[in-house]
């Protein structure tokens, strides 16, 4: 077995063997190591290769995994994903150079998640901002009362509404937004956070590292689709969508963040006709149906 842990390849002798070695990723373009690995494979000294870590920003480098089939032509390839539409299944097999693969497909629905769909008024004087703040009112009250005992909750919305939600909780909670109240007023001690692409990698990593722990201080995460992949926390109990995701795949990925521990969880989607009309050209037909 060859165990490729990026942290083990930080010494200068190891670095010399690679064309490209970056933090949290190992690009399989090797000089001497490729020949050495092939020798070991011919002697049946390598049965499988395990990559321990995938960072949350793995997408740009996913296409490079196809090089594995040329380096290890006799190796068996298994691709696993929680959700993949039919067109994405083809893209995965092509990018990994898989020839006539066997497909094992299961229903992605989780029996422990209670799904709820609630239609919001479409034509009202108040816009999305006011409706969003109305939704957050009971959440803010629960956060004040229960603090770190509140079930971890992810709220998916647009980038604009992420900022609106964050500012609303800042305003309503005041000094109570930090736990304990006399703690340093730094993001790590705040009861809520926001996660989206404009944030720095360090800020994203801190949120991801926090939410996968039972003692997580951030009990409410305002997130865009940037938070949908690579999150595996057994402690998230609620996922709320304010608006309709463009694809069923996205909805299943995001709502599936809840109930990873197998205990009862809840997924709630709030929508109105304006949400659908604004994204109708980019939305899958199944997501436009009521």
Automatic annotation (TrEMBL):
Do you know which InterPro entries this protein is assigned to?
Answer: Helicase_C-like (IPR001650), P-loop_NTPase (IPR027417)
Catalytic reaction equation(s): Couples ATP hydrolysis with the unwinding of duplex DNA by translocating in the 3'-5' direction
Gene Ontology biological process terms in this record: double-strand break repair via homologous recombination
**Organism whose genome encodes this protein:** Acropora cervicornis
Instruction: List, for all copies, the residue spans of the domain called Helicase C-terminal.
Output: 131-290
Q: Name one GO cellular component term.
A: nucleus
**Keyword Nucleus carried by entry:** yes
So what EC number does this one have?
Answer: 5.6.2.4
Q: Which family does it belong to?
A: Belongs to the helicase family. RecQ subfamily.
**Which domain of life, per UniProt?**
Eukaryota
| EC class | isomerase
State a single Gene Ontology molecular function: 3'-5' DNA helicase activity
A Pfam family of the record is Helicase_C
Which of UniProt's keywords are assigned here?
Answer: ATP-binding, DNA-binding, Helicase, Hydrolase, Isomerase, Nucleotide-binding, Nucleus
What name goes with this protein?
DNA 3'-5' helicase
């Amino acid at each position: 077995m060859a165990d490729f842990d990026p942290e083990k390849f930080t010494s200068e002798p190891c670095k010399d063997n690679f064309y490209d070695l970056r933090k949290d990723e190992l690009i399989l373009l090797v000089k001497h190591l490729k020949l050495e690995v092939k020798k070991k494979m011919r002697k049946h000294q390598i049965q499988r290769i395990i990559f321990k870590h995938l960072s949350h920003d793995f997408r740009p480098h996913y296409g490079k995994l196809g090089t594995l089939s040329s380096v290890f032509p006799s190796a068996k390839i298994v691709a696993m994903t929680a959700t993949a539409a039919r067109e994405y299944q083809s893209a995965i097999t092509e990018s990994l150079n898989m020839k006539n693969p066997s497909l094992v497909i299961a229903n992605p629905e989780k029996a422990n998640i209670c799904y709820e769909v609630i239609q919001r008024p479409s034509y009202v004087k108040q816009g999305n901002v006011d409706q969003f703040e109305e939704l957050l009112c009971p959440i803010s009250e629960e956060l004040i009362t229960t603090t770190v005992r509140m079930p971890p909750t992810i709220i998916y919305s647009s980038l604009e509404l992420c900022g609106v939600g964050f500012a609303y909780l800042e305003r309503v909670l005041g000094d109570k937004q930090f736990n304990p109240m006399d703690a340093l007023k730094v993001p790590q001690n705040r009861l809520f956070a926001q996660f989206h692409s404009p944030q720095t990698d360090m800020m994203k990593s801190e949120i991801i590292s926090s939410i996968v722990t039972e003692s997580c201080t951030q009990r409410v995460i305002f997130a865009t689709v940037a938070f949908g992949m690579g999150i595996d926390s057994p402690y998230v109990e609620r996922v709320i969508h304010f608006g309709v995701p463009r694809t069923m795949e996205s909805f299943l990925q995001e709502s599936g963040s809840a109930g990873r521990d197998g205990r009862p969880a809840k997924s709630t989607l709030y929508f109105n006709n304006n949400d659908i009309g604004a994204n109708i050209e980019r939305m899958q037909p199944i997501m436009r149906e009521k």
